[in-house]
Every structure is written in structure tokens, then in C-alpha cells.
Amino acid sequence: MADLPPFAVAFIGVAAVIACFYLIWRVILLFAPGWYSAMIKNNAVSVDDFVGGPPDPVSAFKSVLLNWFNVGSRVAKKEGYPLKTAPSDKVPGLIVTSRNESAPQSWSDTTKPPVVVGTIRMGFGHHRIAYAATSWGLGGGGKLFGLVGGGKIDRETWFHDFLSIDSEEAQMIKDMDHMYSKGSRMASELGGVAEKFWGSLTKSGDENSLRVTYQFAEHMLPLINGLDKNSPIIATHCMVACAAVAAGFTNVINLVIDNHAQWFVVVPGALNLVQGPSNYHAFLKMGVPEKDLGLAGHWIPRDLVEGIPDACARRNTRRKAGKPLRIIIPVGGAGAQKSFIVNMVGALSGLVKEGVVQLFLNAGDHEHMKEAFVSALESNGMDYDTVVDMNGLQSFKDKMMTEEPAKNVTLFSYEDYFTAVATTDILCNIADVLACKPSELAFYPIPKLMIRRVGDHEAYSALRASELGDGTLEVREVASAIKYVNLFLTTNLLEVMNKSISNNNKIGLYDGCKNAMRLALERAEK
Ligand SMILES: *[C@@H]1O[C@H](CO)[C@@H](O)[C@H](O)[C@H]1NC(C)=O
Ligand SMILES: *[C@@H]1O[C@H](CO)[C@@H](O)[C@H](O)[C@H]1NC(C)=O
Ligand SMILES: *[C@@H]1O[C@H](CO)[C@@H](O)[C@H](O)[C@H]1NC(C)=O
């Protein structure tokens, strides 16, 4: 060695290190299928059968590694936590579950098991869809759907949020959510290979993402095993659907989010309902069996669907009378897209001061968004009113049915999470345009200005809205957003959208949640 020139020594060193890593990688790949088999050996449901076969060694390793990040060496428990129920203090008629610390479980067998809408509070989307689904079960779901037996078969509707069951499993969900945000931040700071590897682990939406989601759900059984196994389950988070199937529930309906086919949003053993036709055939093409798939329509709350004719007529009358254009601008649960929205508010200040545009700004429960809105309003010299609770919101809405607001800008901000979510739903009845990113709101029956997306998968939701005729294409720049607002003011675009909404409604395109509830009830009677 001593005789070799330094560059040669360096070369041999590097080659040895590479050879070493390569050898370790080969050994890992040799063992990975075995680790994978050990990981899935007690699973109730085979994800591999569903996705068309077992993973190759690299996929097996990725799945094992991610599962280890998620659950470490914990052994999954099965026994369900006893639950208690209480009437919701937010939604009349709705029953909310939580953990009953004191008791062994027993459900009376004289009443029919309830319809359980299962969700996880992550962002606003999963909860918003869950409330939309419950709205079709309340007030006599059975009668609404003309089911045999009418009122007799009406069941209670329960809202079952995994995070409301105070437990180590709920804590695992929170920790995992936290870890992914931290991981993404770290990966993007490190950049390069680290960022690529993290992205390929977490963002691909491929078969492995479903393997890992399902494996995590195997650890969540105590959160759902306390329910009556005869209950129909409507899940608005795929992990809830996975846990329900793994626990042995046989009537599980999974409401698939967005409009982009990815493996981890469908669940083996559940009836997976999608919102639009391209998702339907994309999942068929991926290999999801026809019997596990259904095309339901969009996830919309009952009062918005039933209010479509009135809301359309009211918007139409406002347009004809030259009333100001009411734009509602909500911020998502993750509070992203701050700078776009703040700049947009500034860019609209001219039209607001002229009195041709009114803004309803929903900062939700994000203090930082409220501050950002306030500073944008103040620096642009825009006067505004504030609404801070449910009572204020209700009376504002009632007043807006017939009157104009005192100020041209109203800022909604809350400490309470539920009111933050509900505000956008409630204001859609009295607004002319909803300006939002292409999230679950992309399919709401109101003319929509689709603003810059946060996740790439959301692009397909904007396309869907645009082709349905009730929304614009996704606008990437504030200037294009303002251009659309001017088109709303000066062309017949809003009348065309209005007409699309009426037509879409006639053929049931907004009836997704209604159909899900009907199917859940019908299947439960079989
Ligand atoms: C908790 O369970 C016990 C025993 O089943 C029951 O008596 C009690 O009413 C439950 N608590 C609530 C609030 O439902
Ligand atoms: C609000 O709008 C009205 C017209 O509806 C307009 O006359 C007024 O100047 C606007 N007020 C402010 C403070 O921008
Ligand atoms: C808008 O919708 C309402 C209610 O469906 C309808 O009465 C009205 O004629 C529609 N306007 C246009 C221009 O389509």
C-alpha cells in the first residue's frame, strides 16, 4: 500500500466503501421479504391480494422500514376501548362518541345499531366530509330514502373521531402526523438524495403506501372494536376504513377523497365510493375489483344540496340587480397558502372600496391567518367587521338573506375548531363565489374560483370542477385570480356556472354523501 500514490489509495478506499454499502444493501434485500412476511403474518386482510401480488424486495424493505418509523416494535392490541355517547353540542340530533374510562362494553340489543361515521381530525377535509355524511342520516334517514319500514329502520347517527378516544393509539396517530411534518421539513432542508428518498417513501401513493397505511391501522383496532360489529361504518379517512375492515366490520363504506387515483385512498374489504367517473375507471385500471368500487357523486352536506335551487335563484337575482359580488375566501385546516391569499385580498382592495365586491374572509381557528388578514386589510385601508362565534355567524347569515353587510369586508375567526369548519359550509348559502384551493371544497355547488393548490394531487379536482362547469381552472397567480373576478363582474360567466349547477343537481352529481348514507342503510337491512 505504501508504494501506491495517494490518489490510488483514495480510489481503493472509496471503492471499498461503495462495495461495502452495496453488500449491505444486497443482504438487506435478501432478508427484506422475510421481514415483510413476519410483519403481515397476523393481518386480518391481505393487501397484497388487493394490489395484485406481494412486493418485490425493495418494496418489502420500504414497507417494513416505514412501518417501523410508524409503530416501532409495538405489538398491536385488539380489545376495544369501552365507549360512551353524548348528544353533540354542535349538531342537533348527532351523537358523539368518546372513551368510557369506567366500564366494560355492553350495547343494548333491543335497538338497531347506529350508523357510525368514522373520521380522524387531520386538517379540515376529513371532518368536513364526515359532517356532510352525518347530515344525511339525521332527521329520519330511512324515511328520506324511502326504505322499507320507513321510520322503524331509522338508526342513530354517531360521529366517531379516532382522536376523541383518549388512548395511546390516538396518541400514535398524532405522533405519526407530527413525525411526517417534521420528516418533510428535515428532508427539504437536507435536500438532494435525502429529499428524494423521503419523497419516494411517503409521496408516491403506490402499493406500498397502502401496505403501510393498512399496517398502521392494524394497531388502531382498540379504537373501533368497542362499537357494535353490526353497525354500518362510513369512513371519511382511509385509516378508519382499514381499521374497521381489519376489526371484522362487514358493512364498511370508504368515501374516497379528491379526484386522483392512488392506492392508499382505497381499502380492501370496503365498498370504496368515488366522486367522479375518471377516478372510477382509473381505479378499475389499477386493479381494484368492480365489486369493491362505486361511483357516488360529490361529498356535499344536505342543506347545501337541498338549498341549490334557492341559492341559485338568489345569486341570479343579485347579479341582475347589480348587487356587489360576495366572495368567500376560506383558509385550509393546515393554514397553508397564506401569502397567495393575503396578496389576493390586497389586489381586490380597489374593487372592494368601489363597493362592487364584498369579502367574507374565514381565518378559521388559525391565529396567524387572522393576523395576516388584519394586516393586509389595514395596510390597504380596508374597513372590516368581525364575527367570532357561532351565534354571530348564524345571525350574520340570516341577515345576509335579505340585507347587505354593514362593512364590505367581514372577517371570521374563532377559537373553536367546529365553527371554523362549519363557517364555509354555512356561508356558501349566501355567497356568490367561493375562492378556495382545489380541496374537498372544489366540488361544492357554488361558482368557484379555484386558487393555487397545495398538494399536486389537488390539480385533478380543479380540472373536474372546471369541466363540471361550476368552477374555474386552477389559477396559479394572483393576477389571474383578479382577471377571473373581473370576468365574473363583466361577463355572463356566473350565469353559465349557475346553469351548470342547476343541471348537475338534476342528475344527482352532488348526491355523493346522500348515496353513501342510503347504501349504508340498505346494506345494513340485508
Ligand atoms: C360507562 O359505562 C358504565 C357501565 O357500562 C355505565 O353505567 C355508564 O353509564 C357509562 N358512562 C356513560 C357516560 O355512558
Ligand atoms: C362599501 O361599498 C359601498 C357600496 O356598496 C361603497 O359605497 C363604499 O364606499 C364601500 N365602503 C368602503 C369603506 O370601502
Ligand atoms: C340560475 O338558477 C336558477 C335556479 O335554478 C334559475 O331559476 C335561473 O334561471 C338560473 N339562471 C340562469 C341564467 O341559468
Automatic annotation (TrEMBL):
Entry superkingdom: Eukaryota
InterPro entries: DUF6937 (IPR054217), DUF6938 (IPR054218)
DUF6938 domain ranges (all copies): 288-520
Membrane-spanning segments: 6-32
One matching Pfam family: DUF6938
DUF6937 domain span: 104-283
Keyword annotations of the record: Membrane, Transmembrane, Transmembrane helix
Annotated protein name in UniProt: Uncharacterized protein
Native species: Cyclostephanos tholiformis
